[in-house]
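Fold it.
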Amino acid sequence: MTRTRLLFLDFDGVLHRNLPRPAEVFGRLPLLADTLQGHKVDIVVSSSYRFHHPWEDILKMLAPLRDRVVGRTGDAISGRYARWREIQTYVIEHHVANYRILDDADFEFPRPCVPLILCNGAIGLDDSTAASVRDWLKA
């Protein structure tokens, strides 16, 4: 299946709240899987997990979405809007035209940042942010 959209995915504050209890880790993953079901969209991991976990472990963590995961952003960039610049490097190198960013760290992005779908890090992905993802996918 050819997919025309990319979702850049952070983990902490998105797939679970920041500082989750062990039982809560990746607890929002089923909501994201349901949100993406039936849509042509691939995932690129933009989470800092990519620096601390082997790639195969990350793919196991994302098992319900494994078939959608096509890569990860590259080397860490430091300074202002680091995550945004990491994502932009990927966007340019891979000629990505249609994408969104699911993240909780608004300070990592310039304002305004149209592609950013901002999660509340104290909650993670919720119905409201999932609806924003769905709206983009339906457009």
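The mean pLDDT is 95.
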